[in-house]
């Protein structure tokens, strides 16, 4: 009961679902459930460098897989040249350092690696990320962290529009500003923006929590201000410290945005209205 109250205070609400529960098909004590059958046994002390300059995106991704199969746990990617779809589909523990910028869809569909990018990233970086960490030292394009499911996604600079669209878990941290419609249809997780936020923030969000340190140009449909609690302040302080970030006006002065939950229940609609929606 205490855990349920704590989660509700922090904006992580639960639902009563009548369908199948995880307990019927998932046992945490079974070690194999935490790794993929094709995952490689890597040594983080074993280091390799990869020159991406002469390679196509497909060749780069195949080379990364080949290096992991040989036990390399730390890989440095040089000269990425802002190519699209680099470092995607990594379902393995890995320390990956990218010395340069990525194009569209970089680091998508990953589960487990820790990635540091010294440059910028284009649209849809870390789409459908499941676990791990990604830190971008400069700016990021639109749809940053789309459909994020877990892990920490950090951008030290500014981010474009529709960040965290359809977000289902995890944490997004932004050291600068973000564009319009960020958190659109957000379902779970937390989003932290230390700078200003664009229009329609949190539009149609179902659940989750958004924290903003600067000015908000406008809230979207069913996004409402929430009350900052001691738990919020404590969590924000710890999480920002992990990545060397600070709220410009202090964590206690950040704004908290949550779902108004007016869109949760469609039972009051007339049959003709339901037909239009569904």
What does this structure look like?
With 278 residues, this protein is an alpha/beta fold. The chain has 4 helices and 11 strands. It has an 11-stranded mixed beta sheet, with helices on one face. Residues 19-26 have low confidence and may be disordered.
Proportion of residues in helical segments? 10-25%
Q: Could you say which structural class the secondary elements and strand pairing correspond to? A: alpha/beta
Spatial order of the strands forming the largest sheet: 1-2-3-4-5-6-7-8-9-11-10
Strand content: 15-25%
Mean pLDDT: 89
Tally of alpha and pi helices: 4
Radius of gyration: 20 Å
Query: Which ranges are low-confidence, i.e. pLDDT below 50, for 5 or more consecutive residues?
Result: 19-26
Can you count the beta strands? 11
Run of helices and strands: HEHEEEEEEEEEHEH
Principal-axes geometry comes out as: elongated
The largest sheet is: 11 strands, mixed
What is the CA–CA distance across the termini? 36 Å
